[in-house]
Amino acid sequence: DDCGGMLRAFALSRAARLGAGCAAAGLAASQTECLGADARRISESCDAVGVDKSPSTGPRPLMEQLTNPPPFGSGASRFDMSTYGGRALHFLNVLGDPTTLWTSAAELEAHRDLLRRHAKGEKTGATDAELWRADKVVTATTRGETGEMVPAPFRFSFFAYANLVICAGLLRPDASLASAAFFQWLNQSYNAGVNWCNRSSGEGDIQSLATAYVAATGAALAIGVGGTALGKRAGGGIVRLTVPMLGVALSAVLNLVLTRRAELDGVPVYSTDGMELGISKAAGVLALTKCSEARILWTFLLLTVTPVLSGGALSALPSAISASPTGAMAVDLGVTFACIWLFVPLAMAVWPQRDTVAVSALEEQFQGLKDKQRRPIEFVEYNKGL
Hints:
single chain
């Protein structure tokens, strides 16, 4: 029934669109009537077999998105990117799959070639599952704006694994100030690399990267170490938790903005039919703002939920494990890894990576433009990065 309803709705909407286009081009009424007749015949056939005339609309259930992906190339995304749940599944699927980390340059090119040939309509012999896999690998391993391959350690699919090492150093109970400073520097250096490799702008050179790295890691390190030290001196309770949290969140945002500051000069924006319209500084500010919000959100979740889950896990385990420093650290690291693996994609899903903004919020140069069909452009798209 759902299939028939979708077919009927597709036929009617396609006929309406084509009919409107024919009318706009001055074609005879009989030609548009033929399109309407085709739609009516399909509708009558649906009626004859008892198909519901009002096809279901709205977001697809999450379980259906997981277990029943649409045919590849049908125009539908693997997950419903118009909803938070669909975007969360998308990021968990792409960033939570460690097997994409081992993709070689040759394998990536093979996946790209498969997708290119399929897009041209060539017979590839690939199944939908193989095509969706190729699409996932390309998405997980490359920068969308330029298509260049991101080094494996700086992909977000490696983020939880890298932080497992960093957190092991930061969580050491007997760590000296020098040790804490080293792992804070390692943390901010790694964040700078991730931010740079996942920027939305294609611009960048070694000199600007070096300058951004020194500024970002230096300032973020001072804030991170200072915030942690102040937190330890704080009286307790919410203050003791809030001070280091603010320090970590602020250092993460500062690292992001300084490393990707070239985006403040603008990022490319496109019409919804794919036509590049120019470079917008307003869209660049939006990209960094929304990426900063994601970092603040996952920092908050990690620093509030993780200790609760870790404490619960320790209390549920035998005292021989929970009372042992090694056992307690192993539990802390395991819970931290699981929370990073889960919370980072969930925070990223708040905003679409390919985001939309109203033209009215952009510069004067984007006002009054028209798309390829000569329709007024009211919204544009831009890649905000990760």
